[in-house]
Amino acid sequence: MSIPINEKCYITIKEAAEYFSIGKKTLRVFALEHPDLAFFHGNRWLFSRERMEKHLATYGLGKGAPQKQSEQVLDPYEETYPAHE
User: What's the burial of 8, exposed, middle or buried (CB within 10 Å: 0-12/13-18/19+)?
Assistant: First the structure.
């Protein structure tokens, strides 16, 4: 029986890399710099998935982040397509 990553409380670096689309080496450095989000248990790092999602969302990243709106404003009277020949 396998539990989906989005239902786990704590995830390994390999699972975090897949879930958040962040490299394993980056996550190892991140774990050292943020002991409130990750801890070393036995022989592996474990991340608190919920805390990590909240942390990434504060920077506009990750699955819980609000989608950015396009800053480009289109003028309906401006020709944006090339003329057909």
Answer: middle
Assess whether pLDDT exceeds 80 at residue 79.
no
Q: What is the DSSP string of 28-84?
A: HHHHHH-TTTEEEETTEEEEEHHHHHHHHHHTT-STTSPPPPP-----TTS--SPPP
The pTM of this model reads 0.68
Q: 44 has which bridge partners?
A: 41
Q: How far apart are CA 72 and CA 56, in angstroms?
A: 25
Q: Which residue has the tokens 């980056």?
A: 26
Fill in the amino acid letter for 85.
E
C-alpha closest to that of 68 among 81, 57, 78: 57
